[in-house]
Design goal:
By secondary structure, the chain is of the alpha+beta class. Among the domains are: 43 residues, no CATH class; 47 residues, no CATH class. The chain is built from three helices and four strands. The strands form two sheets. The chain has a two-stranded antiparallel ribbon. It has a two-stranded antiparallel ribbon with strand order 3-4. It starts with a helix and ends in a 20-residue tail after the last strand.
């Protein structure tokens, strides 16, 4: 939904029709919203549309069993739009008494260097997340709702907003 609003804002500015106001955006958010469509406690959003029947229909479209790799080398230098993939040694042979080495890898899944999908807990509009859940349910410990680990979303793998 937010992607549609951004596209509308870009095309509106590019076409010379003027800038969108906050009221314009609020109106689009309300008219395009799926909040409540699957009930007050829904945490899947439009993923509710991907039913077992739809999966079987999609599977029937496959004509060849070709796998395609989406792998690319990790970028270890800052890109213009996002921080780099990070590798850091946390235990080394220079530390007294250590019998092994240990390292940490981290990445921030934003910008154009890493492909990802955000969980619904990742986007706030005003003081709310999808379906009206409070944004304060996302803390430094993870997300209490709309995370990739919610029972309803257990078949989806998202890297952002783990619970």
């Amino acid at each position: 939904m937010l992607a549609l609003i951004i596209a509308a804002a870009i095309s509106s500015g590019a076409s010379g029709k003027g800038r969108l106001t906050k009221q314009d955006v609020d109106k689009m958010v309300e008219s395009l919203s799926n909040w409540g469509r699957w009930g007050k406690e829904d945490q899947l959003g439009t993923f509710n549309l991907i039913t077992p029947t739809k999966r079987k229909e999609a599977e029937a479209l496959v004509q060849e069993g070709v796998s395609v790799s989406l792998v690319h080398n990790v970028l270890k230098q800052r890109a213009f739009d996002s921080p780099p993939f990070e590798h850091r040694m946390v235990e080394t042979g220079l530390m007294p008494g250590k019998q092994s080495a240990a390292d940490v890898y981290s990445a921030q899944y934003h910008g154009f260097i890493i492909t990802h999908m955000d969980a619904l807990c990742h986007v706030f509009y005003g003081d709310k997340m999808y379906n009206g859940f409070k944004k304060e349910e996302v803390t430094d410990k993870g997300a209490a709702r709309l995370s990739v680990f919610s029972p309803a979303a257990s078949f989806w793998i998202f890297p952002a907003c783990s619970g």
